[in-house]
Amino acid sequence: MSEEPALIWERPEPPSRPTPSPLSREAIVRAAIGLADADGLVAVSLRKVGAVLDAGPMRLYGYLSTKEELLDLMVDEVYGEIPLPGPDAGDWRAKLADISVRTRAVARRHEWFTELLSGRPQLGPNALAHLEAGLAAFEGVPGFANIDRALRAYGTVRGYVIGSISAELAERRAERASGLDEQQWQARSTPYLLRMLETGRYPNLYRVVAEAEHPDGATGFLAGLNYVLDGIAANIPG
Amino acid sequence: MSEEPALIWERPEPPSRPTPSPLSREAIVRAAIGLADADGLVAVSLRKVGAVLDAGPMRLYGYLSTKEELLDLMVDEVYGEIPLPGPDAGDWRAKLADISVRTRAVARRHEWFTELLSGRPQLGPNALAHLEAGLAAFEGVPGFANIDRALRAYGTVRGYVIGSISAELAERRAERASGLDEQQWQARSTPYLLRMLETGRYPNLYRVVAEAEHPDGATGFLAGLNYVLDGIAANIPG
DNA sequence: GTATTTATCAATACACTGTATCGCATGCGA
DNA sequence: TCGCATGCGATACAGTGTATTGATAAATAC
User: Fold this and answer.
1) Residue percentage of chain B with pLDDT more than 90
2) pTM for the complete prediction?
3) B78/B73 Cα distance (integer angstroms)
4) Which of A:189-228 have CB within 8 Å of B?
5) Is the four-CA dihedral B22, B27, B28, B32 of positive or negative sign?
6) At a CB cut-off of 8 Å and minimum separation 6, what does B178 contact?
7) When comparing pLDDT for B32 and A57, which is higher?
8) B205·A125 Cβ contact <8 A
9) C-alpha angle A126-A128-A134 in degrees, rounded to nearest 5
10) CA A184 – CA A236 distance, rounded (Å)
11) Looking at beta carbons, which pairs linking B191-199 to residues 24 or more positions away fall under 8 Å?
12) Buried b (16+ CB within 10 A) or exposed e, B40-51
């Protein structure tokens, strides 16, 4: 199907291939993260990532062998943005609170982060360092010398952190997805909720709408985190 | 572009439209859940769901206006499968443990469930009933009369439950995704992990691989749940 | 009982996805 | 200066969600 039978005399030379922009895994991941930050995970396609880097989609397959791998790289990159406490950053509780709060901060900058966490084993170097730091917080804590116990305790904190942030961000996203501002979203869903609540089947939910003050995200997050940490503290003998 | 100019005499009658199978939201959701249970969320496409019901993809748009809505319905349907404790099912702790354990059981039957939870507000009737039951557990508990406090406490439990189950299932899925059995997956990832651990940068992770006994999922889940519940108990005055 | 409107659904179409294949152009070794 | 290897672009394909369209069946009006 050669569609260019023009004579050589008037056929233009091929555009002297403009030195293909040098590429790297790092650049690819940064481009993908930029797209995801701006327009959500749906905006991350190999074509769009390639376009940002002046490359076709197939060019990326030299650096990854699957889109899943790109997502894995994105996750590990974000793990790398979370500062980790050093060995003398306080006691176990301070260290865990530190990791948790900083994780939340980063997850709010990259709203897609927690979405990717569910359903993907995290084996990248930064993810491993993150887990290592969490476990290290339990070094020398009575009752948590057993690594299985430390692992479970940290897993509990981590489960709470991720679950809690997911819920917080889901709410934020739902508002914006419905078009414009928060008010517009609430205007859409509130009447429905009121109708449900009027049935009387949800007395406690009714109180949530009627009485709750909805403390801001950070406050609520810390309150829950303290429940979890209190629970661990309650299991330190002595 | 009528491609059937045959004369009426030999043109076959249109196949007397075989009474289009009656459809319902319920049937659509069940079909979608069946596909997801069998082959994961990627297997849920409007074409495939339609095919199960002997219908074209566009037929479904009478019952939903978007695929997102189908996913919302699936989530609420699964919520409906979780039995909720009645008012006299024990104290707050028993009720919360009950909800959590049953949620885990259902989430293991529908591995895609937690995947959908992150990133979607849950406003269906069954989801609301679920939340209501969680809040109801705190009725009459000293220190949790304030609905904000009850909401946060339950949110903590819920965050842990979802985060924890997600992690558990992510591991299980990763094993199977890599082709065949658990051994095959570990054979692929273990050498990499060992090389990372040999660097000495992850002393606690090293212990996880070397010393940990990896108690089974249910045991670990309950251990973590007890941390969280202990933490709440520690905040009940008196 | 016939004609006309209305609702329902299948077919078609479109823009877009991830990825396999293939052929060319470029740079390197001889 | 030639031959070859390698990396990249173009092309292709099967699949996605959904807008549009056109036909058919049901419901209504006369």
Assistant:
1) 53
2) 0.85
3) 9
4) 189, 192-193, 196, 201-205, 207-208, 211-215, 220, 223-224, 226-228
5) negative
6) B184, B185, B188
7) B32
8) no
9) 105
10) 48
11) B192/A123, B193/A123, B196/A125, B196/A128
12) bbeebebeebbe
Interval A139-180: pLDDT, tens: 999 999 999 999 999 999 999 999 899 988 888 877 666 555
d(CA B29, CA A220): 35
Nearest-CB residue to A212 (from B148, B156, B167): B148
Distances (CA, A) of A185 to A42, A179, B138: 21, 8, 30
Selecting from A169, A212, A227 the residue whose C-beta is nearest the C-beta of B235 gives A227
- Nearest to B62, CA basis, from B20, B104, B96: B20
Q: Which nucleotide is nearest to A45 (CA to C1')?
A: C17
SS3 (DSSP) at A46: helix
By residue count, chain B amounts to 238
Give the distance from CA B79 to its chain's centroid.
9
Q: Are B152 and A223 in contact (CB under 8 A)?
A: yes
Q: Write out the two tokens for A59.
A: 């060019």
Q: Which two tokens stand for residue A62?
A: 């030299």
Q: What is the per-residue pLDDT across A172-202, written as a single tens digit (0 to 9) for each?
A: 877 666 555 555 666 677 788 888 888 888 9
Q: Is the pLDDT of residue B4 over 60?
A: no
Among candidates B162, B137, B47, B147, which has minimal Cα distance to A207? B147
Distances (CA, A) of A115 to A9, A75, A98: 57, 10, 22
Please give the Cα distance from B77 to B36 (Å, whole number). Answer: 13
d(CA B147, CA B152): 8
